[in-house]
Amino acid sequence: MAVNVSNRVGNVKNKRSHALNATKSRQDLNLQVYRLEDGTKVRLSTKEKRTLLKSKKAA
After folding, report:
1. What pLDDT shows up at residue 1?
2. Contact by Cβ (8 Å): 35, 3
3. Please, are residues 55 and 18 in contact by the beta-carbon 8 Å criterion?
4. What is the pLDDT of residue 14?
5. What's the rounded Cα separation, in Å, for the pair 29 and 41?
6. Domain extents for the chain?
7. Which of 1, 28, 40, 56 is most exposed, with minimal Cβ within 10 Å?
8. For the residues of 1-59, what is the DSSP string, one character each?
9. What does each C-alpha distance from 14 to 8, 26, 30 come to in angstroms?
10. CA of 21: how far to CAs of 12, 14, 25, 45, in Å?
11. Are β-strands 11-16 and 22-27 bridged in parallel, bridged antiparallel, or unpaired?
């Protein structure tokens, strides 16, 4: 079972019809399951995953 690591939340937006009616909707994050070097599985957003992989590559 993967553990949520990030504290980020999705965006809240309005869907607009042609009559300009506003309906609230939620845009969730793109969470991916990623296995760390010690073997634990974590759920990261794709932005965090890219940052992690870039820092690994630089080191």
Report:
1. 72
2. no
3. no
4. 96
5. 18
6. 3-58
7. 1
8. -PEE------EEEEEE-TT--EEEEEE---EEEEE-TTS-EEEEEHHHHHHHHHHHHH-
9. 20, 8, 19
10. 16, 9, 13, 31
11. antiparallel
Q: Which amino acid would we find at residue 32? A: Q
Q: Which of 16, 33, 37 is nearest to 25 (CA)?
A: 16
What would the pLDDT profile of 2-45 be if each residue is shown by its tens digit?
Answer: 788 888 888 999 999 999 999 999 999 899 999 988 999 999 99
pTM above 0.90, yes or no: no
The token pair that represents 49 in the structure block: 């995953």
Is the distance from CB of 15 to CB of 3 less than 8 angstroms? Answer: no
